[in-house]
Amino acid sequence: MTFKSVISAILVAILALLCMLGTQKDDLNLMYAAFCSSPYVILMAIFYFHFNYFRRKLNLLQRPNVLVELAYGFVFYLAGCMLFPVLLFVGTIGDNYEHKIYEDLGSIISEMLPLFLILSVFLTIFSAIIIGWAIKSYKTLILVLVGYTILVPLIYSFAEVSRDYHKAKEKAENIADNIKEGRYEWHGAMSNPTAYPVQLYKGYFTFPKDEKSEFTFSEGNTVNYKAKWGEDGGGTYREVKSLPKAIDVTWFSFAEDTFYRVNSLVDYQKLRGLFSKSFTDKRVSRFFDENYDSIIMGFAPGGVMVIWAGSTGRRQVEIGRYQAEKVIISTPVSNTGELKYEDLFNREWRKKVLTDTMVVPSKIQQLTKNKPIPYGYWDKLRATYNWRPTFVVSAEIKIHDADFSFYNAERFVFFDESLQSNEYEKRGIPENVYLKWYDKNGNRCAADFDFNEDQTFKKFDVFFNQQKNASGEIEFNIDQKTKKATATLKNGGNKVLLLETEIVEYGKKY
């Protein structure tokens, strides 16, 4: 009887602890606590079985029904669980550090009560119904263990579904609460033109309630490798927080050997309007809800700073343009000749950044060597005009989507209804447009419009500024018969061909 009781108690304790952990959120601290307390749980189960033994000897509750047995087991185990912190409290008397942990005994029991209840339920079930009666014979015990191997996956499946449901519900409630309070999950990021690296010196966000928070990019004030204007580079940590209403940032421009500082309000309402609503994106034949999740700060020569809102999908929107002032940082520049990585005041570091091909590719270094910095260029890229895209396609095809990248580093994707019904609005000059569709035979096709910068900017200038057109359309025409696709800027009788390109047929397996 003793051997069977001990084996049964160990099985009951292990199975009950596993099931309890399976119903909880993943928490290493909880797993560690369950492991440390397992001897006590085993001891509780042994007492349960031996108490049953003495109970039968004394003819107490010799023939209990299932409900009585469950109630008796539950009370027994719950009392044992609640006794555990009391024993820890008493056992640590004399050890000031350990005893202080259990000093507020009532709060500890209250906090642990949900776990005690769950554990007591599982201990009761396995003891009173499964193992408790199985110890009458080894054959029955084997059958019960086989049955348990079937029961465990069911318990875990139920626990996992329940846990996922509660997680999803909790996440939805948190998102709704965060949006209401103006908090979003996002990160800041730096950007710069490839040829003109920068490094953050100091940066501060000011939030709506005037809280000020310092930030850095990556793990320190590092530079971007092979950066591209408008693209997300080194970033701050991603976390749920308010959006900034102001920014105070000081950076160093290596090519100019100059510090710049912007201390300015930002368009908080525009940021919040974008971050508050998800948008739909389409990939292949599936739709996804996407969100804005980054604030990208672009630093260009001349103290130009542009801020964009970036997203998890294929959208990016400019928030504003800011002009920095040159500032002098009093910290002396180190002339020791010894390279100190990421030290802005070390001349060898400044020299290395400009010559490092991982930062500025050798081809870019050769193109800009001995040439003046093109001040004003990044403002030219921000030119916008009042236009909309239209699409003329053969009747037998349907465009899947049209992915627009603009020279001002904005991005937008048209698909389904937005392909045919989009309004005139201020938009940048397109840098690349990728149209994708399937022909009548189900073959994947595409047209890649890669616009020449100089030619396209001149054509936009002539069309809108010199010809005084207040608005216009860019008509994308796809001709399956000639295998040609064209992009034409037009307004009534005024037409300017921007680009003609070949249609690419990828086939069904693409």
UniProtKB/TrEMBL annotation:
<feature type="transmembrane region" description="Helical">
    <location>
        <begin position="115"/>
        <end position="135"/>
    </location>
</feature>
<feature type="transmembrane region" description="Helical">
    <location>
        <begin position="6"/>
        <end position="23"/>
    </location>
</feature>
<dbReference type="Pfam" id="PF11153">
    <property type="entry name" value="DUF2931"/>
</dbReference>
<feature type="transmembrane region" description="Helical">
    <location>
        <begin position="141"/>
        <end position="159"/>
    </location>
</feature>
<keyword id="KW-0812">Transmembrane</keyword>
<feature type="transmembrane region" description="Helical">
    <location>
        <begin position="30"/>
        <end position="51"/>
    </location>
</feature>
<feature type="transmembrane region" description="Helical">
    <location>
        <begin position="71"/>
        <end position="94"/>
    </location>
</feature>
<keyword id="KW-0472">Membrane</keyword>
<keyword id="KW-1133">Transmembrane helix</keyword>
<protein>
    <submittedName>
        <fullName>DUF2931 family protein</fullName>
    </submittedName>
</protein>
<dbReference type="InterPro" id="IPR021326">
    <property type="entry name" value="DUF2931"/>
</dbReference>
